[in-house]
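Exercise: predict the fold of this chain.
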Amino acid sequence: MRHDHWQRTAARLDPERDFEEIGRLVAQYEFPWDSQQALSFALFRTYAVPSIGRLLHDTGEFTSAVQKRHDDTVIILETIADRGLESDEGRAGVRRMNQMHGSYDISNDDMRYVLATFVVSPVRWIDRYGSRRLTAGERLAVVRYYQRLGRLMGITGIPDTFEAFSELMDSYERETYVFDAKARVVADSTLELFATFFPRPLRPLMRRFSIALLDDHLRETFAYPAPPPWFRRLAHGSLRARGQVLRFFPARREPSMLQTSHRMRSYPGGFMLEHIGTFPAASSDSAVVSPPPA
């Protein structure tokens, strides 16, 4: 298929009505790797808000069980997006997510900020490193999808445009970002997990590579040392070069999802969505289904 096959397919859809389908084309066919990396960095930047970083640290889940927390997040978010917000599976994913959030004292402002990072970070990443920039219709579809998800999560004061989401995210970070020792522990644990997704000899390099991609305000908030300018240029340049090379590749024929990749390690025997995630008031936090006998 032509490289622009999915772009042309999305262009025939109405982002006000078909925002979920456009979102699947972008995230699963056109820019799966970029979308996955961008959402990982979106979550990472939320740790720099002290009220978020401290909460994640105090639960112990992002230090002692960071792989499972990663896998749980991927499963829930990908299931909602893949099956659809109004589907039985999608609603089950939203319900499980709301149950987890409802177990903690999380402000609407923090919830709305996290939602904004999910809108803004992937668009900025793809525009910077992807094989092309997102179209206006694709960008609008991202906004409409997360508006609907945010309403299902009970978030109020949700922005109506990408520009408004961008301003909300940037202003919230200017107002709240400050070094917190607990948040730094969560950030370190997450970087260590990211590194394990690569061959062992590359892991120290990939940690440095990830830090080099952070914007200055975020990196300084975590008190990470500034990488040498040449290394930062190499990190950003390699991602831009990858995007340019992909312009010559044919369109992907099969969807790509993280929950079927080697990065998912917590549920080798399968899982049940209603058992995914944290259960602070329960005695069990296991969603593992035992594999069948050999």
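Check your answer against the key: The chain has one domain: 13-250.
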